[in-house]
Design goal:
This protein is of the alpha/beta class and 333 residues long. It contains 11 helices and 16 strands. The protein folds into 2 domains: 131 residues, ornithine cyclodeaminase, domain 1; 184 residues, Rossmann fold, CATH 3.40.50.720. Strands 1, 2, 3, 4, 5, 6, 7 and 16 form an 8-stranded mixed sheet that branches. The chain has an 8-stranded parallel sheet with strand order 10-9-8-11-12-15-13-14.
């Protein structure tokens, strides 16, 4: 069997945000049911710690998928020509182990991360939530805007970035693309004042969101801090919220937003109320009152990439998309 090579632009055509939100909901449920094999990701740092190579293998039972993501993470790329996350998702056959597809990882990561935040928003945010604040102006800011539009009717959108010019470019570009007024704000506090949906998508190493700024009843999707030494939320923001994660084991080892608050003695492991999939299956309570602040701490897990890659591969075959190459050797005879 030949291997399909699928590019960045092709991924966006094959995996619309609305479809991916539904797909991620099913993947989170499968994880909560135990229908997945998901080791902690491993990382190889460059000697100067300027970037790393992350390896995220896994198996997902539904849709039945087997493979891994190999991705470079280069924080210095933020705001420049290159995406901060680049690599490939490799999909293998479950029965025979043949390489089925090699797919651009930047596009999959952008779509599936935001789609999972969309699942969390649909499950945890107030029914009328529609005042959106986005902290950050990069790839994830764009994809989270699309995801939030998919699951909620937005009545106001504000964006903040450390570089004011980037926030203004984001606001102008996305306003024209979507026909939606987006306001660029000069501070994170101004961006989130009164917001009931907040997405933090920055490369910050120290907090850009303080708990005292968050309006009662807000829901927060925190996706930018993927290392235990980095955080976007201060301790007060974590402590005041009902905290949910994509995977408990990952959060206990890698989620700086939570781990730093824990190291300060402000909370314990029990502050994590459950995994998103457990909420979706009704095993863990989600929002219990209109005034509560809910927080989804997203690190990203390999089954999200596998579910996305499986769907992309299926649609590529159906539509004749991608380039087929004889990558693997064939058995003699």
């Amino acid at each position: 069997m030949d291997t399909l090579i699928i590019t960045h632009d092709e991924v966006y055509r094959l995996l619309p945000m609305g479809d991916c939100v539904d797909l991620m909901e099913q993947a989170m449920k499968a994880l909560a049911r135990g229908d997945a094999v998901l080791p902690l990701r491993s990382m190889v740092w460059l000697p100067d710690r300027s970037g790393l190579l992350g390896l995220m293998p896994g198996y997902l039972g539904e849709p039945r998928s087997f493979g891994l993501k190999v991705v470079s993470i280069m924080p210095g790329n933020h705001g420049g020509e290159y995406d901060s996350h680049q690599g490939v998702v490799m999909l293998f056959g479950v029965e025979h182990g043949e390489p089925l597809a090699v797919i651009d990882a930047s596009s999959i990561t952008a779509i599936r991360t935001a789609a999972t935040s969309g699942v969390a928003t649909r499950a945890l945010a107030g029914a009328g939530a529609g005042d959106l604040a986005i902290l950050g102006s990069g790839v994830q800011a764009v994809s989270h805007l699309d995801a939030m539009r998919t699951v909620r009717r937005l009545r106001r959108v504000r964006v903040w970035s450390r570089t004011e010019a980037n926030a203004r470019r984001f606001a102008d570009r996305e306003s024209k693309r979507l026909g939606l007024r987006i306001e660029a704000m000069d501070s994170p506090r101004a961006a989130i004042e009164g917001a009931d949906l907040i997405c933090t998508t920055t490369a910050a190493k120290s907090p850009v969101l303080e708990g005292g700024w968050i309006a009662p009843g807000a829901h927060v999707n925190a996706v930018g801090a993927c290392f235990r030494s980095n955080r976007e939320l201060d301790t007060a923001a974590v402590v005041r919220a009902r905290l949910y994660v994509d995977r408990r084991e990952s959060a206990l080892n890698e989620a700086g937003d939570f781990l730093i608050a824990k190291e300060e003695g402000a909370c314990t492991d029990s502050h994590i109320l459950g995994e998103l999939g457990e909420v979706l299956l009704g095993r863990v309570a989600g929002r219990t009152s209109p005034e509560e602040v809910t927080l989804f701490e997203s690190l990203g897990v390999a089954i999200e990439d596998l579910a996305a890659a499986h769907r992309i591969h299926q649609r590529a075959i159906e539509t004749g998309t991608g380039v087929s190459v004889a990558l693997a050797g064939r058995k003699p005879g």
